[in-house]
Amino acid sequence: MIYPAxxxxxxxxxxxxxxxxxxxxxxxxxxxxxxxxHKGKNITLLDLRGLTPxxxxxxxxxxxxxxxxHTIVEEVDATLRKCxxxxxxxxxxxxxxxxxxxxxDVVVHVFDSDTRDYYKLEELWADAKVIDWEREYDxxxxxx
Length: 144
Known about the structure:
Helices cover 35% and strands 22% of the residues.
């Protein structure tokens, strides 16, 4: 389809086709795989559907250094952008003790080890099901 370069009164300009966003579980698994590829540790994916209306999945990842935390955060964002997702907000990036990325239904937490041990989100959300992201991960969906 050819899109007109200039506005023509009375002509309806169709929006460019928008890629349908993959399911939250798939995006959460891709984020987990990306974190693992960048040496993230203690990667845990929690299914919060039915526990809160705010989001569906929490991905928890630990990094060994500020540089690694930054790398994981940026690479996860690049992966999710590749599949059409957009980060709604990011908090904690400057201090890099606990960086939270909000993608709506998927929330990614990247911690340094001490901060993760202190806040213990896995205990706070103990009722959540832990998802085996390595089993759920489907690399072919990302290439479609």
